[in-house]
Amino acid sequence: MAASTKFLREYKLVVVGGGGVGKSCLTIQLIQSHFVDEYDPTIEDSYRKQCVIDDEVALLDVLDTAGQEEYSAMREQYMRTGEGFLLVYSITSRQSFEEITTFQQQILRVKDKDYFPMVVVGNKCDLEGEREVTRQEGEALARSFNCKFIETSAKSRINVDKAFYDIVREIRRYNREMQGYSTG
What keywords were assigned to this record (predicted)? Predict the structure, then answer.
């Protein structure tokens, strides 16, 4: 079946997580298919990519956010406008894993919802020897949030597209459910 082009749906995706977990690397790997080796802390960058997800054309509008605490005041603004969130931690940093709950709770508070489309992303899975957070812990956290979990490597390009495609699928599912509530 050919991809439907009659309506180009834009998805506002927001990549959140602590400093240095690889948010920009994941985003740039998705958009430009290359790995950025040097660390340059982001304040806020926006990227766009058109792709086909489950036979539907999608325009991904990806907001790569600051992990640094000094930019936390900007968070509420992008949390208000985002339609789906990738909650990224590094498997090599227990602290970044523990920060994920704070991001999740803040998103739900800003959205005033009990559930909102999110995917928990354990990045840097290529650094198995430096792992501080088990896959099972990541899965358990995602289960507690009632969302999907995926381990990625921006460096090795493992599951990068899948992480972003999964959040689009979650947004689509969420929107179908919301339409069901409003019409039924």
Answer: Cell membrane, GTP-binding, Lipoprotein, Membrane, Methylation, Nucleotide-binding, Prenylation
